[in-house]
Specification:
Layout lengths: L1 H20 L4 E2 L8 E7 L5 E7 L3 E8 L4 E6 L5 E6 L7 E5 L4 E9 L6 E10 L4
Parallel strand pairs: 1-3
Antiparallel strand pairs: 2-9, 3-8, 4-7, 4-9, 5-6, 5-8
Length: 131
């Protein structure tokens, strides 16, 4: 009986750790007639994720503040890394990627240090002309 209780406590602890680290993705919504949206938040302990829908032939511009302390990773629908970059002051916290497929793209933001970081992210989707 004691072993069963200990096992139950152990399984409950694992469940709490796993579910705490797995946050749901938030869809970035654009206002009617708008091509850009801004979200604010914190990377938290394990990072945070957003999803944005974009079409082939478009480009996504990310403007992330602060320019230091927050990393950004964009993944394609099949899970491959579409782009991965640590934004720094040399880039001004701005990054642009051109898209070759219509899909939902996942944007992951995480702290590059040991502590959670507050951030503001502006995502703009426009027609690709030149990158």
């Amino acid at each position: 009986m004691k072993n069963a209780f200990i096992t139950l406590i152990f399984l409950a602890a694992i469940f709490l750790v796993v579910t705490d680290g797995a946050k749901a993705q938030t869809r970035i919504q654009f206002g009617k007639g708008k091509s850009a949206a801004t979200v604010t938040g914190s990377t938290g302990e394990f990072g945070t994720s957003y999803v944005v829908r974009a079409k082939a032939g478009q480009k996504i511009t990310f403007k992330l503040s602060p320019a230091r302390g927050v990393g950004i990773k964009v993944t394609a629908p099949d899970g491959r890394y579409y782009q991965s970059v640590l934004l720094d002051q040399k880039r001004g916290g701005t990054y642009v990627i051109g898209l070759d497929e219509t899909a939902d793209y996942t944007i992951f933001l995480g702290s590059t240090g040991r502590n959670p970081e507050a951030f503001t992210l502006t995502v703009a989707i426009t027609k690709m002309t030149d990158i």
